[in-house]
Design a protein that fits this description.
The chain is mainly alpha-helical and about 270 residues long. It has two domains: about 1-90; about 105-265. Helix content is about 65%, strand content about 5%. It contains eleven helices and four strands. The protein has a four-stranded mixed sheet with strand order 1-2-4-3, sandwiched between helices. It is globular and about 80 Å long. The model has no long low-confidence stretch (mean pLDDT about 95). The chain binds zinc ion. Zinc ion (ZN) binds next to helix 7 and helix 10.
Length: about 270
């Protein structure tokens, strides 16, 4: 009985916390969120100004077709950034998390989990205290439908409770926790656009978007001057996941080091 009362009280306290995060982050994150929006607006203005000269140039070089395709991609990317940045500015992530958490249970990261992710991303990489691990409730149904695959939404990492196979995406699977927390890190660094970019790659590659080529791939990428930020959002999360796993198993991580340095510098 006492355990039930405590559980209900904890749940209510967490929902109140979720709700208060909205006004808190509206103010706290206003400078960074409005800054991102201004950069996007500036980028749009530049694109308009340079559109005609670039068009004339493309016509002269007779590569109008590839130029138009490139410009169309940039156009959609710009709109995606603009909309997600407006969403962030209005506190959409906090409202989204508040609503999603109404049908489930949340707990903060344990000190052990914070220590683990800090060892990968850096001591002050992100607001570890804001992160919530989401498990159970109606989310059991979500995981039944998606094949028990973990996913991250803003400051939440959503993990199935059911252990279905070796390497299940439960909280006990620490490399997966590192993977999902990398998505939270992406959110803190670039905003909600990480989510659209990750989902876009999942659809575009039919879920084959995690492969970054392993150690050989990292060595080649390094030699070619490719940076961590050049990998897609899922590859980025897989790189830190594997880095953690290799460290855990005392496997040489030299090939990861230049990229992990970029992660810790927030270059994503
Ligand atoms: Zn992922």
């Amino acid at each position: 009985m006492l355990a039930t009362i405590t559980a209900v009280f904890n749940w209510l306290a967490e929902r109140l916390r979720d709700f208060l995060m909205w006004p808190i982050n509206l103010i706290r994150d206003f400078p960074v969120r409005s800054g991102r929006l201004l950069v996007t607006l500036w980028r749009g203005l530049r694109a308009i100004v340079f559109f005609t000269p670039e068009l004339v140039n493309a016509q002269r070089k007779q590569n109008l077709h590839s130029w138009s395709r490139y410009k169309a991609g940039r156009f959609f990317d710009w709109w995606h950034q603009l909309l997600t940045q407006l969403f962030d500015l209005l506190g959409g992530p906090e409202l989204g998390e508040f609503l999603m958490h109404l049908v489930t249970n949340t707990t903060p990261l344990t000190p052990k989990e914070i220590h683990m992710i800090a060892a990968v991303l850096g001591e002050n990489a992100m607001r570890f205290g804001d992160i919530r691990v989401v498990e159970g409730g109606l989310f059991d149904l979500v995981f039944k439908l998606n094949g028990n695959l973990a996913f991250a939404t803003w400051h939440s990492i959503n993990l199935p409770r059911k252990k279905t196979h070796q390497g299940s995406h439960t909280r006990a699977n620490l490399p997966i926790v590192v993977h999902e927390l990398t998505h939270v890190y992406q959110y803190e660094k670039v905003g909600t656009r990480y989510l659209g970019e990750a989902v876009y790659m999942l659809i575009k590659t039919k879920r084959d978007c995690y492969n970054y080529g392993g150690i050989a791939g990292l060595k080649n990428a390094c030699a070619a001057g490719i940076c961590y930020r050049d990998f897609n959002r899922e590859q980025q999360a897989k790189i830190t996941q594997d880095y953690f796993y290799y460290c855990q198993h005392n496997i040489d991580v030299a090939a990861f080091e230049p990229f992990i340095a970029q992660v810790r510098a927030g270059e994503l």
